[in-house]
């Protein structure tokens, strides 16, 4: 029987890298989709040392055609996608009086719209028991006005996850966002590894008590 597969959209050295390692340790093979070739190559080597088979593709996830094609290649190669993890967001330090509408829409395209692309592309390869996980943030509820678009992205992606979960659950696939109520740090409760464990636990929720939003407060 083939190993389970996780595809990570927005893969890099932070939380997404920790998510990849956490699932690799659990016996998953991994597909990585991200912007930085060197980061992807380095992360892939780490995952292979953990026993995972790894594929990686460099793509701008706001390019719907390229993103969908990359995810389809992962799915066609493995035959299935068991977990889809979505991580990207845009940090733009502009308050609401500085932020332009095109800038806001560009950021939302990355932090929210790309999730639609990813799920729609992965869906043909997902079946009962499949999971969609999303890195959320307290910015959804308590935005920092100096980075106004980030709060909009995180509120929007959480809302979209609720709709995805309601749509996918009829086929036994569930979606969850993990709202991280703290600032990422190198030590303490909010290291990328600790957040990744919260995401892994959210994906493993008992379906009879499933919540499409889980809060991680450390």
Description:
Belongs to the short-chain dehydrogenases/reductases (SDR) family. It comes from Nocardioides mangrovi. Keywords: Oxidoreductase. InterPro entries: NAD(P)-bd_dom_sf, SDR_fam. Helix content is about 45%, strand content about 15%. By secondary structure, the chain is of the alpha/beta class. Strands 3-2-1-4-5-6-7 form a 7-stranded parallel sheet, with helices on both faces. The chain is globular. The relative contact order is 0.15.
Taking the sheet with the most strands, its summary is: 7 strands, parallel
Mean pLDDT reading: 96
Shape: globular
What's the arrangement of strands in the largest beta sheet?
3-2-1-4-5-6-7
Q: Fraction of residues in helices?
A: 40-55%
The CATH C-level name is Alpha Beta
**Beta-strand content:** 15-25%
Q: How many domain regions?
A: 1
The total of beta strands comes to: 7
Protein name: SDR family oxidoreductase
Pfam families: adh_short (PF00106)
Family: Belongs to the short-chain dehydrogenases/reductases (SDR) family.
Organism: Nocardioides mangrovi
